[in-house]
C-alpha cells in the first residue's frame, strides 16, 4: 500500500512539473482525458464501491449516506467553484492565497482517499482522476498572479491529502467502525463529480464521436480492470 501513496503524490507533482515546464494550453486532448477519467471513475464507483457498501448494510440507510455525500460535494463546490471536476473560475489577477479553493479541495481529496485501503480497482479510478485535475489546477496556479511558493505549497499539500485519507482510514478505529457509511458518503462525492464531468464535457450538446469514444473506453476499461 505504501507504493500507492507514492504513486498518488508523484502523479500530482509530475503533472505540476509538466505544466511548469511544458506550459500546455487548454486543449481538446485535456478535455478527452477529463471525459475518460469521468467515465472511468463513474464505472469503478458502480462496479467496485457500490457492491461493497450494499453487501452488509441496510440499503436505505446506505442510500441516505450516498445522498449526503452528494450534498457535501455540492457544498464543497460552492467554495472550490468546480475545481474537483476540472473547472477553475477564480480570479487570475488575485495575489492572495485562495484559501476557500484550497480547503474545499483538501477536504474533497481527503475523503477520496478513504476507500483506498487496499489496491482495489477504485484506486486506479482516483489516480486517473487526479491527472486532468492536477493539470488544470496547476495551469491556474502557475498562470495566476500568485507567488510561485504559494503555488508549490498548494500543490504539495493537495498531493498529500488523498494518501492521508487512505492512511488514516486504515489507522483510525472510528473510520473502520463506520466504513460502509463513510464509503457511501465518498460514493456520493464521486457520483457527483464524475457525472458533472460527463455532463459539462458536452456543453452545447453537440455530438462528438471522439468524446463518446473515450467515455465508452472508460466504461470498458473499468469493467475489465
Ligand atoms: Zn463545472
Ligand atoms: Zn477528486
TrEMBL record:
Subcellular location(s) of the protein: Membrane
Main localization category: membrane
Membrane topology qualifier: Multi-pass membrane protein
Keywords linked to the UniProt accession: Membrane, Transmembrane, Transmembrane helix
Keyword hit for Nuclease: no
Domain of life: Bacteria
Transmembrane stretches, start-end: 32-50, 62-79, 122-142, 148-170, 182-199, 205-224
The name this protein goes by in its record: ZIP family metal transporter
Organism of this sequence: Muriicola marianensis
